[in-house]
Fold this sequence. Notes:
single chain, 268 residues, alpha+beta, D-Maltodextrin-Binding Protein, domain 2, 2 domains, five-stranded mixed β-sheet, 8 helices, binds D-MYO-inositol-1-phosphate, binds calcium ion
Amino acid sequence: MFLEKGLVDAEVVARFDLAKNVIKVAGELALDYFQRREELVIETKTEPQDVVSIADKNVEQVILQQIQEAYPVDNFLGEEQGILKGDNDYLWVVDPIDGTSCFVNGLPSWCISIALMQQDKIAFGLVYDPNADELFTALSGAGCQVNGKAVKALNIDSVQAGVMGVGTSHRVPSSHCLHFLQGLLDEGGMFIRNGSGALMLAYVAAGRLIGYYEPHINSWDCLAGLILVQEAGGSTNQFLENGGLLEGNSILVSAKDIHHQLDHFTRL
Ligand code: IPD
Ligand code: CA
Ligand code: CA
């Protein structure tokens, strides 16, 4: 259907179809680990609260294997593997489990995030929540869907009209997040943090949250979410500017008519 409309090229559509299968397989494996998580050995990475287990590593490995079988010269960037150089213009950006802290503590708000970059553009993004069996998908130019059903970002003009997702980490000073929260709360807004940036971005696309802000996020957490929100008609900041792909950046996405006001709250 997308090809008939001339929206994107066949190479991208073939990868999108593969990604829909790969993310479901990865989701099944992750859910199996989640259901017997007391067996997992939890390690802490370099910063406080940043945890990882064999589940993250093996789920990423399964995703990588399936991509490499089909597309051996595509580039790959995964949270656990880092960058694997290929020999063409495609780059897969993968977070095998986003919301690991929730995952290891038995909370269901975690997901898998897969995006494809074609040169400097995001070609598609998928976020899969195995607990809810919800697959959020967006192919550039073809809208955003949840389990195949079209969804839209909210059409609102006040931060009081719903709940804002907010995230933070120990990669940045607490003042960034606190300043944003103060601006939001002073204007009668409210916030939620469920522990998975990728899932909260998907919720903005699906019209469940008015927006999402995090002072620093990595590309594997958010590239899929960015295109989900764009294709759902929401606004996004220029995450990829100034080395966002490899270094991370701040992220702000929201319903269109409140983006300017929210952006103001991010300015220290
Ligand atoms: C983290 C989550 C969290 C966000 C952090 C991410 P992880 O990813 O998305 O919500 O606030 O910035 O690092 O470690 O669970 O994959
Ligand atoms: Ca993540
Ligand atoms: Ca992760």
